[in-house]
């Protein structure tokens, strides 16, 4: 398929290994310029906010290159796209001088009410057409490269007629956007739905990956949960290593939101990721 | 499947995840209405139900921690009832809580409490004021307003009253309550988690919640009606200190020199408390 995005990808900066900015660890993050290459910032935590949030954002961006990773675009919702949100997002990515921005393949609002959670959509042609149109509109409005992230889904959504890999493949190719590949999500979905994660990576247009997410999960007896609250599992490092044999990525970030460890523990994870990246046959 | 069908599916899912009665009915049959051929994935549906509930409770607790502490076992019912009512409360309202920023989730909590929670309100008569304060405090903390904290020109003595006008901190809010909220906040903070309800005697208070331009912390100051009038008047538009002294003269019996001295002290105090953050030259 013709792709402007793959040409755009070649022009994007290589940001290295980064981490999601979290307030609990902000001071350590700001001091660790020898360990962290860049930051990923959730716009909803800073956009249209003054006070402490604004100070923190300004400090972060004075030290690091930052990319924007949103949670409320609600690409899968049939609510109209929130114009106020889009304006705020465009202003935000401009302010932080983000080379790209991202959000999730999910819905996050219903009946104009935000649910503040990444909720699964039915994988079918109709959802696909709906989301492709919305991604195109977002790309056109925000005017910097846009990536969508594969999310976890804990239940088969009624009305689904396609596999996740089919859905994602058609979505990012038809919308001609990039992929933020969350390898922990790939792993979690593979366990919960009895899939082969390597086969999943072989089925999607992995060459559209610009950024990779790494995170920890929680294994319950009946289900695996994407908690961002545990150390990264070896199986997830292995998936990263495999993904990097298939494509060049421009950044890898760690997401940690719960059970905050010492910063040293996260620094060790950054080092482990850096080692994998430096050995990647295609480079990063 | 059309967009309207997609909407139907999303409505069905959100109802399944947020309405325990609907969930129980679906779990009993193992099916979802409209999809008789698809077996309900109960395990996955339970995960989303738990996550959405936990998110709502945690977000509201982060905004209203003291209300949560006082409500105790009633907290979960209170928050989930409010969330159920939220779509209609927020409809066509400018400060709607159907907003992408988390703190806006509590935008109509006070209004909901007043109209729907009479039993809880009679057990805790101060709770309405407490909710209002906590929601206001959270909003003020994040208000996206630049505070230009100008030291010049400085008000040095009463001879400058006619040539200068105060700039009121845009991150401040006047609050009128029927209970002494600063006292109640202290009492709740020192209350052990398992203690019973607190009782307070009503007392009308006028408070100013002010965000410090440097530390961004919110400070609450109790003020009298005259100070409230002066601050409200100054915030309403450019008014010289002389105008504000004249306003004070209409409401107190001090001789002019004593009044000028009193007002100078008041303006100095308001500046120290970051209520006045600069001066305009007239």
Show unreliable segments of chain B.
Answer: 94-98
Which pair has the most extensive contact? A-B, 47 and 46 residues
Mean pLDDT level of chain B: 90
Give the % helix of chain B: 40-55%
CATH superfamily of chain A: Divalent-metal-dependent TIM barrel enzymes
What does this structure look like?
The complex is a heterodimer of chains A (284) and B (282). Chain A is α/β, with parallel strands linked by helices. In chain A, 41% of the residues lie in helices and 18% in strands. Chain A has an eight-stranded parallel barrel, surrounded by six helices. In chain A, strands 5-6 form a two-stranded antiparallel ribbon. Chain A has a two-stranded antiparallel ribbon with strand order 10-11. The longest helix of chain A is centred in the middle third of the chain and has 18 residues. The radius of gyration of chain A is 18 Å and the shape is globular. Chain B has 282 residues and is α+β, with helices and mostly antiparallel strands. Chain B folds into two domains: 102 residues, no CATH class; 124 residues, Outer Surface Protein A, domain 3, CATH 3.90.930.50. Helices cover 52% and strands 13% of the residues of chain B. Chain B has a three-stranded antiparallel sheet. A two-stranded antiparallel ribbon of chain B has the order 1-2. In chain B, β5 and β6 form a beta hairpin. Chain B starts with a helix and ends with a strand. In chain B, 33% of the residues are buried. At the A-B interface, α3, α4, β5, β6 and α5 of A face α1, α3 and α5 of B.
Name a few traits of the molecule.
heterodimer; A: 284 residues; alpha/beta; TIM Barrel; two-stranded antiparallel sheet; 12 strands; globular; B: 282 residues; alpha+beta; Outer Surface Protein A, domain 3; 2 domains; 3-stranded antiparallel β-sheet; 12 helices; 7 strands
């Amino acid at each position: 398929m013709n792709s402007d995005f793959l040409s755009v990808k070649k022009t994007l900066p290589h940001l290295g290994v980064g981490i999601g900015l979290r307030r609990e660890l902000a001071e350590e993050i700001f001091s660790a310029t020898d360990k962290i290459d860049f930051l990923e910032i959730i716009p909803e935590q800073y956009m249209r906010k003054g006070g402490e949030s604004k100070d923190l954002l300004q400090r972060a961006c004075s030290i690091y290159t930052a990319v924007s990773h949103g949670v409320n675009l609600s690409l899968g919702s049939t609510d109209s796209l929130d114009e106020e949100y889009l304006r705020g997002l465009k202003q935000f990515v401009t302010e932080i001088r983000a080379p790209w921005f991202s959000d999730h393949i999910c819905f996050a609002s219903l009946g104009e009410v935000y649910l503040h959670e990444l909720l699964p959509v039915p994988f079918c042609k109709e959802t696909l057409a709906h989301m492709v149109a919305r991604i195109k509109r977002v790309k056109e409005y925000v005017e910097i490269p846009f990536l969508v992230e594969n999310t976890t889904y804990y239940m088969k959504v009624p009305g689904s007629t396609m596999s996740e890999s089919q859905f994602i493949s058609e979505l990012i190719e038809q919308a001609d956007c990039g992929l933020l590949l969350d390898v922990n999500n790939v792993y979690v979905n593979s366990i919960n739905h009895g899939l082969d994660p390597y086969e999943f990576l072989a089925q999607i247009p992995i060459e559209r990956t610009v950024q990779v997410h790494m995170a920890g999960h929680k294994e319950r007896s009946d289900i695996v949960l994407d908690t961002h609250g545990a150390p990264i599992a070896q199986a997830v490092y292995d998936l990263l290593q495999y993904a990097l044999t298939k494509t060049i990525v421009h950044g890898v970030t760690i997401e940690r939101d719960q059970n905050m460890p010492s910063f040293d523990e996260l620094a060790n994870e950054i080092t482990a990721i850096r080692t994998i990246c430096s050995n990647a046959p295609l480079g990063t | 499947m059309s967009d309207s069908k997609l909407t139907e599916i999303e409505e069905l899912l959100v109802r399944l995840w947020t309405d325990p009665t609907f969930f129980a009915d679906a779990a009993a049959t193992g099916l979802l209405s409209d999809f008789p051929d698809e077996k309900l994935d109960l395990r996955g549906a339970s995960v989303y139900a738990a996550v959405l509930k936990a998110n709502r409770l945690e977000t509201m607790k982060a905004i209203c921690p003291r209300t949560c502490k006082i409500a105790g076992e009633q907290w979960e019912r209170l928050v989930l009832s409010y969330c159920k009512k939220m779509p209609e409360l927020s409809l066509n309202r400018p400060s709607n809580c159907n907003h992408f920023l988390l703190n806006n989730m509590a935008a109509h909590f006070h209004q909901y409490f007043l109209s729907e929670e009479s039993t809880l309100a009679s057990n805790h008569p101060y709770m309405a004021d407490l909710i209002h304060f906590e929601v206001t405090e959270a909003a003020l903390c994040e208000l996206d307003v630049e505070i230009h904290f100008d030291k010049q020109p400085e008000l040095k003595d009463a001879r400058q009253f006619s040539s200068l006008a105060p700039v009121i901190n845009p991150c401040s809010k006047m609050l009128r309550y029927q209970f002494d909220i600063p006292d109640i906040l202290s009492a709740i903070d020192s209350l052990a988690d398992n203690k019973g309800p607190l009782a307070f005697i009503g007392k009308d208070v006028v408070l100013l919640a002010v965000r410090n331009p440097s530390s961004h912390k919110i400070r609450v100051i109790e003020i009298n009606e005259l100070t409230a009038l002066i601050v409200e008047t100054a915030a309403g538009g450019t008014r010289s200190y002389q105008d504000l002294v004249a306003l004070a003269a209409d409401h107190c019996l001090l001789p002019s020199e004593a009044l000028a001295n009193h007002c100078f002290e008041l303006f100095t105090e308001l500046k120290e408390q970051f209520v006045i953050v600069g001066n305009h030259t007239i």
